[in-house]
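Shipment paperwork, digital attachment
Item: protein structure file
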Amino acid sequence: MSPGRVATWATAAVVGAVGLGLAVPVLSGVYPVAQLVAFRAVLGLAGLAGALVLVALPWTRRRAVPVVVALALGAGAQAAVLVARAVPAAPPEVSAAPSSGVPADVVVLSFNTLDTVPAATLAALAEDAHADVVVLPETSRSTAEITAALLGTAGMPMQVHTAGGNSPWIAGTALLVSPGLGTYPSSTDLPTRLGGVLAVPDDDAAPTLVAAHPLAPGRRSAMPAWRSETAWVAGRCASTPGAIVAGDLNATLDHPALRDLGPCVDAARAAGEAWRGTWPASAPSVLAAPIDHVLVDGRAWRVTGFEVLGATGGSDHRPVVAHLTRR
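Attachment content:
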C-alpha cells in the first residue's frame, strides 16, 4: 500500500473515531468535547458539508473515499441521535409515587432573561402560558418583583423568591410560584456560583421547587465547577420525591450530570422535543444547544407537553414551557 493510501486510511480512521466519540460521548465531561457535543446538528452538518466538498473535487474523489465515508457516517450518527430525541420517551414505571395533591396540572415556565427582558414582557409570557411556576435565571430581584406585581394585577398572584450570585456581571435567579400550588414561606440559596433557589413548601402535598443556574463550561478552568454544580442540581431532583427543577442548567442530555437522572425525567425528552435547542436564541432552534431544562420526579409527574418558544426580549436564551400532570 502506498504511503498516500496509508495516510488516507489513517485520516479516515481518525475522522471516524472522532465522529463515533461525539455520537456516543463518553468524554462529554472533558474540554473541549463538552462544548462540541452540545451542538449535534452543527456537527452533523459540518460532517456532511466536508463529505460533499471532497466528493465535488474531481482529483480527490477516488483517493478520499474512506474519509468521505467516515464523515458521512459521523453526520448520520448525529442525525440519528436527534431523530431519536424527537420521539417521546417511554414514561418510567411508577412504584412509589408521592401523595397527590392539588392542582393536578402544573405549568412551568423557565427563561434565562440575560437581565434584559422587561417585566411587562415576562408577565405577558407567564400569563399566556398560565404558568404556576416561573424560573428566571439572570434576573434581578427588582425585575422579578415587578413581574409578580403585574401578574397579581392580572389575577395571577405570585410568591417571589430570589438568590444572588457571586458574579458582579451576572444577575441572580428568581422563582415565582402561584399560591395555588402551595405556600412557600421561605427559600434557601443553592451552593452554585450564579445563584439558585431551593423552595420547600409548608404542605407535604406540594412539590419542592429548585430554580437553578449552574456555572457554564466556558473555559477549561471552569470545568470542575461545572461538573460538580450540574451534578448537584441533577442529584437534588433525584433525591427529592415530587421535585420540580428548572432553569438554565448549562448542560445537555449528553453531559455527565444529565445522562442518568434516576427517577427524574427531562420534560423535553419525555415530550419528544429534546432535539430543539435554546441557546443561542439568534440561531435556529435545531442548531442551538438544548441547555434550558425542566426536570421532574417521574414517579410523581407525567409530562404532557413541552414547548421551546421563540426569541424574546433580547435574551440570548429561548423560554421553555413544560406541562405536567400529577400521577
